[in-house]
Amino acid sequence: MNTLNHWAPTFDCETCSREFNSQNAANQHMNATNHWAPRIECETCNDMFQTQSAADQHMSEYGHYRNYCKPCGRRFNNENNLRAHLNSRIHRGTEISCPFCKARFVSTSGVSHHLETSSCPQAQSLNRTSIAQMVRRADPHGIITNKFIEYPDHDEGTYTATRAAYNGQAWECYICHRQLASSNGLNQHANSPVHQQSIYHCPNQGRNCTKQFVSLAGFFNHLESESCGFIRFENVQAAQRQLTDAMAGRRMIAGVF
């Protein structure tokens, strides 16, 4: 057998040095002695475990889940959900204030929505259109604003639903035919930016981000999401302050983004 290499094949235990003449015998041994090699990986480190429960216990104790908030003890399905949680009111608080009424918000996009919807009691003359005009004047090179042949110089007006919008079952948008339960719902839908032209675009041309936005709030929400990697969430607030300076004529947007 040595000369011809006719030895019978052997089957190793996955843990100890014992060998067996058949895989079935090896399996019986490993079952009896719990000698199966660990197969469950930690999501972060190189540790391996026999069971999922043992792996979960380890990852919970050391915060080794891949998408895990250790202070809250919460797991998330993906990195984007974890990032949104870390950038929420729970961890960020309300650090950002309206420059007019000083109401506090979690994010720059929240302040922008507050102003674009004329919700600020100290700046009710501001709305989506007037803010867009100020941003456009500060952005002659179109770094974040789209260039239009003719730019609107007045507010788009307010849509108010009439009985003609009721189709017998619901209040229907004449543009997209979405059906709303009430005339107030239709008014809110029709007066939202959903059917308006995009004014802003992502400045991240280096990575060919083609995202377009109908509102400044949408623009800042995109940057805060870090989805295209152009700017970190914590740096968006500084960019918003500089943009406010640009809108006030103290600088150009070219020096912001």
UniProtKB/TrEMBL annotation:
It is found in: Nucleus. This is C2H2-type domain-containing protein. Keywords: Metal-binding, Nucleus, Repeat, Zinc, Zinc-finger. SUPFAM superfamilies: beta-beta-alpha zinc fingers. InterPro entries: ZnF_C2H2-type_TF, Znf_C2H2_jaz, Znf_C2H2_sf, Znf_C2H2_type. One of its GO terms (cellular component) is nucleus. One of its GO terms (molecular function) is zinc ion binding. Residues 11-40, 67-96 form the C2H2-type domain. Pfam families: zf-C2H2_jaz, zf-met.
